[in-house]
Design goal:
This protein is α/β, with parallel strands linked by helices and about 500 residues long. The chain contains 15 helices and 21 strands. It has a seven-stranded mixed β-sheet. α8 runs parallel beside α9. It is globular.
C-alpha cells in the first residue's frame, strides 16, 4: 500500500497549457510571433509568465537564418532545454521561421527532442502539428514551399493597444547577394488594398492610433497587382481614415522609391516625417557586387528630394561593413554618403556569411580585424552626426505619443518616454496628472544625446486619447485574466520602435 507521502502531486488535467515564444531576427519574425501567439491562445493555450525561461508546456523558437552563427545559437538553446523536457512529461518544443525553412530535417536529426518543425509559409499549422506530435509520439516536420494563406488572415495576439503592424506584402523579388530571405520567404505577394484598409479601419475602431505598414520591400507594393503607384495611393488612403493619427512604413528599397511616394508622404498629414532607407554601401563597386540596383548618386538624390519635400524628416539607414572585396577606397565612399546624408541613426552591421548566399563563397573575404576597424570608424562618425542632428531639436516643441517600456531608467529618473512624429525617442518629466501609453503630450526639448532627447521642464499639455483608453481597458482585462486575451479581429502585432531593430537582417 502506498502512503500519501509517496504519491506524486495531483495534476490538474483541465488546466490550460502554457506557451513561450522566443523570437530572433527582423520585424517580419516579430510580426509572425504575434500570429503564433494568437494561434496558440485560440487553441486554448495561455501565455507563460515573463521570465519563464523554458518552464512552459510549449516552447516555440521563431528563428532567423541571416546571420552566420544562427544555427549555433539555436542548437545551443535547444540543448539547454533538453534536460527540462526530459524531466517534464508532456512538454513540447517547436522550431519555426527562416532557419527551419532552410534546415528542415537537420533540426530533428541534431536535436531529436524537438517535436515540431514548421516553415515560414505554414505558421498557421502550429497547433495542429503540436497535437499530431502528441498523439503520434513522433516529431512532425512540415515545410510548405509556397504561401498557404496570407498571414494577416490568422488570429494574432497584439502586445500593444495603441500601435500595430499591418502587413501589406510578404516575400521579396530582389536577388541581393548577401541575403537569403527571398529563398526562404518566397516571391513577393501583395494584399489587395481593400483588405489592408479594412484591417486598418478595424484596428482604429479598437483604439489603435499608430500603424506601421510592413513588407520585405514595402514600396515595391503593387508589382504583384499591376499598379506601380499602389503604395503612394495606399499612403493617401490611410490619410483619409478618421482617428488614425500616425502612419509609418518599413522597409523601402531605393530602387523602387519614386517621386509619387515622396509626394504622398509630404501631402498626407498622418504619414510621419520619418524614413528608413537602407544604404548597405556607398561604393558603386560594392553595390554592384551586392546586386543592389542603384548607385550612390541615385541614393543621395532620393535623400535630397525627401529633404526638399519634408525639411524636418529624420532619415535612418542600414549599412554593411566589410562586404567581400570592399577596399579602403570603397569604405571611404560609404563614409562620404554618411556625411552627405546626415542620418539621424544608422544601423551598422559587420558583414557575416549567410549560408546559401552568393556572397558567402565570394573571393576576397575581408579579415575580421579589418572589418572591426572600419566598423568602429563608421560608428564613431555616425555617433557624431546623430548627436549634431539631435542638438538641432533642442528648443523645439514636440508632440509625443507616450510609449510603454521604452525608457529603462524612467522609474529611477521620474520620467516617462514617448516618440516624436519623426520617431525620435524623448524622455520627459512625469507630470502630476495621469498619462497613459497612447496618450499625447506636448513638451519642449531641453537636452540632446546621440540616441535620445530630454524634455526636463514641465509637460506643456496632455491629450487623453482613444488609444490611451484602449491601453487602460487592456490592462484592466489583463488584471482580471493574467494570461492575456486576444483583442478582436483582425489582429496584428505591435511594431518594435522604428527604425528597424538592430538585430534585423539588414537585407532591405
Amino acid at each position: 500500500m502506498t502512503s500519501s507521502s509517496d504519491r506524486s502531486p495531483a495534476v490538474d488535467v483541465h488546466a490550460p497549457k502554457s506557451y513561450e515564444i522566443r523570437t530572433y531576427g527582423c520585424q517580419m519574425n516579430v510580426h509572425d510571433s504575434e500570429r503564433l501567439a494568437g494561434l496558440l491562445e485560440e487553441a486554448g493555450y495561455v501565455r507563460a509568465p515573463e521570465g519563464s525561461d523554458g518552464d512552459a508546456d510549449v516552447v516555440v523558437f521563431n528563428t532567423c537564418a541571416v546571420r552566420e552563427n544562427a544555427d549555433n545559437r539555436l542548437y545551443g538553446n535547444l540543448g539547454r532545454l533538453a534536460p527540462k523536457k526530459a524531466s517534464r512529461p508532456g512538454m513540447q518544443i517547436a522550431v519555426g521561421g527562416c532557419l527551419a525553412q532552410k534546415d528542415r530535417d537537420t533540426i530533428v536529426r541534431k536535436a531529436p527532442w524537438v517535436d515540431v518543425v514548421f516553415g515560414t509559409h505554414n505558421i498557421g499549422k502550429l497547433p495542429v502539428l503540436l497535437e499530431r506530435a502528441r498523439v503520434q509520439e513522433e516529431a512532425q516536420v512540415e515545410i510548405a514551399e509556397s504561401l498557404e494563406a496570407f498571414p494577416s488572415t490568422l488570429p494574432t495576439r497584439r502586445e500593444s493597444a495603441y500601435a500595430a503592424w499591418v502587413s501589406i506584402s510578404v516575400g521579396c523579388n530582389n536577388t541581393c547577394t548577401f541575403c537569403i530571405v527571398p529563398a526562404l520567404r518566397g516571391k513577393e505577394k501583395d494584399r489587395r488594398p481593400g483588405e489592408i484598409l479594412a484591417e486598418v479601419e478595424a484596428l482604429v475602431a479598437e483604439g489603435v492610433s499608430e500603424i506601421t505598414l510592413l513588407g520585405q520591400n514595402v514600396n515595391a507594393y503593387g508589382s504583384d497587382i499591376g499598379d506601380r503607384e499602389a503604395f503612394s495611393k495606399l499612403l493617401r488612403a490611410c490619410g483619409r481614415i478618421e482617428g488614425l493619427e500616425r502612419v509609418r512604413f518599413t522597409s523601402p528599397h531605393p530602387r523602387d522609391f519614386t517621386d509619387d511616394v515622396i509626394a504622398a508622404m509630404a501631402e498626407t498629414p498622418n504619414v510621419m516625417p520619418q524614413l528608413h532607407m537602407p544604404l548597405q554601401s556607398g561604393s558603386d563597386t560594392v553595390l554592384k557586387a551586392m546586386r543592389r540596383s542603384y548607385r550612390q548618386s541615385r541614393y543621395l538624390d532620393i535623400i535630397r528630394k525627401v529633404r526638399e519635400a519634408i525639411p524636418h524628416a529624420a532619415i535612418t539607414t542600414d549599412i554593411i561593413v566589410g562586404f567581400p572585396g570592399e577596399t579602403e577606397e570603397d569604405f571611404e565612399e560609404t563614409l562620404h554618403v554618411v556625411r552627405e546624408a546626415r542620418f539621424a541613426q544608422a544601423f551598422t552591421f559587420q558583414y557575416s556569411k549567410r549560408p546559401g548566399t552568393p556572397a558567402a563563397t565570394m573571393e576576397n573575404q575581408i579579415p575580421k580585424e579589418v572589418v572591426q576597424e572600419r566598423y568602429m570608424r563608421l560608428v564613431a562618425l555616425q555617433e557624431e552626426i546623430s548627436w549634431e542632428e539631435n542638438k538641432k531639436q533642442v528648443g523645439r516643441t514636440l508632440d509625443l505619443m507616450v510609449a510603454e517600456g521604452e525608457g529603462r531608467k524612467d522609474d529611477a529618473t521620474h520620467r516617462l518616454s514617448g516618440r516624436a512624429a519623426d520617431n525620435r525617442l524623448v524622455h520627459f518629466t512625469k507630470p502630476d496628472q495621469e498619462v497613459r501609453p497612447g496618450d499625447v503630450v506636448t513638451v519642449e526639448v531641453t537636452y540632446a544625446a546621440p540616441h535620445h532627447l530630454l524634455a526636463e521642464g514641465p509637460v506643456l499639455d496632455v491629450r487623453r486619447t482613444r488609444a490611451g483608453d484602449a491601453w487602460e481597458k487592456r490592462n484592466a482585462e489583463k488584471a482580471a485574466k493574467p494570461a492575456g486575451v486576444l483583442l478582436g479581429l483582425p489582429k496584428i502585432g505591435v511594431p518594435a520602435p522604428l527604425p528597424a531593430a538592430t538585430s534585423g537582417c539588414g537585407c532591405d
